[in-house]
Structure formats: structure tokens, C-alpha cells
Amino acid sequence: MNSTPATNLPASDRKTRANVLVDPGWLEAHLRDASVRVVEVDVSKAAYDQWHIDGAVLWNVYADLKDSSYRLVDAAAVERLFTRSGIGPETTVVFYGYAPAMGLWLMKLYGHRDVRILDCSRDTWRAEGRPCSAAVAGPAATRYPLGEQDLRIRADHPAVRDAIDDPGTTLLDVRTPEEFRGERFWPSGGMEPGGRAGHIPAAVRQSIDHLYDDRGTFRSPESLRAVFAAIEASGDSELITYCTIGGRASTAWFVLSYLLGHDNVRVYDGSWAEWGRMPDTPVDRPA
Question: Is 93 helix (H, G, I), strand (E, B) or coil?
Fold first, then answer.
């Protein structure tokens, strides 16, 4: 399915973007397509309950994707999630919402072939008068036998520990300056009882504030390269992205891997919610 017209881009960039991004007009035309499933990813169900793209199902990051220790849920839970979402091995899955790249990363972790991100914001979809609903979607359950994880795109905390002293790996912290400096644990401003704020030693902070235009559409490859200029200049070193719960880290991974063509990028999905709550992990906190 070719989905995102972008004729002002070079041919190679058009092909890459068309494989992973869908234009809102294309998605509206395919909302009733049985082979397409739309998923909203958010950190609560409040926004979804108010309205969502017609027919979309909800993946709640804290309830569906993370366990009580903020680690990724196990394979059995992921298989149940795919099944109740009406997703089969051949389904085209389109993500949108607060953390669509996190949904795409999870499906790619288990080798799903056709996964996309809606190339506009949730608010833009509604402002353009496209189909919305407050009804909870109940797609027919499917069968989804999971394969093995693709560990080329995932880093656990032992891998991150090893990366601290590895000159061939860059740890990319995509949180806010306040989180990086240890002034807050959570992006909302709060601290975590028993947790420590700061950053992983040797990590480099990378802003991801300018990835989208006013419509919530990903900017051109040229503009995205400017955002990641320091990374673009660093050569072919491996990158491990992290944030607080994995949403922003997955966004950075998506842009670097799919829109800018980097081959060696992994997501530390446990991110700071795991690292900062573990008693023996090294933490840097600038004076």
C-alpha cells in the first residue's frame, strides 16, 4: 500500500516515508478496510474516551505495554494485546496519538511486516473534520502467534551498562534538560519515591522538540538531519535511545532508523523509569 505523497522529496526519501507514514486522506479512505487496524497509543484512556479516530482501539502505555516495574510486558501479554486488537500477521497497523512510534517499535520488535504512523497530529485529524467517535471499538479477535524478538532494536539495562564505557556506542538521552540535570524524575515535574533523578553516565542529551511542523507532520529529511546534526556527524557508531518510559526514545529511534536511514539504533525501553528506580545503577547528576 503506497500511502504518503511527498513529491518534493528525493526518490529514496519518498520511498522510505511511503513505507512507514500514512497521509490522513489515505487513512480516512481505508478506515473500513478489513486489512487495516488503527491504534491510538496514550498514557491514559481519558483522551480516547472523549474521542478517537473512528474504529481505533486504545493501547494504554501503563496498562497494556508496561508491567509494574515499567518494563515491557512479556510475550504472552503482547500476544493477547495483538489478538484483542484485531491484529493478524498480515494486518496493516496504523498508529497515532501520544506515542505512536512506541507502538510501531513494539510491533517491529516481534517482526510485524506492515506498520505505519499517521503523519499528522491527533488534533489535526479532528480539526480537518475527519471521522471521530467516542464509542469503544470492539474488533473481532484474531490469532497472532508471536515470533522471536528482534534484539537489534532493543537494549536492556545490562546492555546499557556495557555501553557506558564503550566508545563505539552513544547513549542518547532525549528527555528535557530538567530531567537530564536531575531536577525532576518524571517529565511532568514530579519525583519518584525511592527513585533517583539524573542521567546515565556518558549519555548525550538530544532534543527532539522540532521533529514536526504545525500539523504534526514529520519535517523533511533535511530538517530532521539538522535536528540530529551532532548524531549525523558522529559516523556509524551504535546508538541507544532512552527517555522516561520509552515513548520519546521510540520516536527518536523511528526518525533515525526509518526517516534518516541509520542502521544501528536500539531503544532502551525500560528507560529512566527502570534505571532510576534500580538501587545499584550509576547515575550522573550535575552539581
Answer: strand
Strand partners, 133: 52
Report how far residue 114's alpha carbon sits from residue 92's, in angstroms, rounded to the nearest whole number. 5
Characterize the bridge pairing of strands 132-133 and 92-97: unpaired
Q: Which of 146, 118, 143 is nearest to 130 (CA)?
A: 118
Q: With a threshold of 0.85, does the pTM exceed it? A: yes
Distance CA 74, CA 71 (A): 9
Spot the catalytic one: 41, 78, 243, 245: 243
Question: What tens digit of pLDDT does each residue of 170-215 get?
Answer: 999 999 999 999 999 999 999 999 999 999 999 999 999 999 999 9
Q: DSSP string of 23-52?
A: -HHHHHHTTT-TTEEEEEEESSSHHHHH-E
Residue of 35, 9, 4, 36 lying closest to 21 (CA atoms): 4
- The answer to whether residue 243 is catalytic is yes
Closest by CA to 118, choosing from 30, 15, 228, is: 30
Q: From CA 95, how far away is CA 270, in angstroms rounded?
A: 21
Dist CA 70 CA 91 (whole Å):
28
Burial class of residue 204 (count of CB atoms within 10 Å of its CB; 0-12, 13-18, 19+): middle
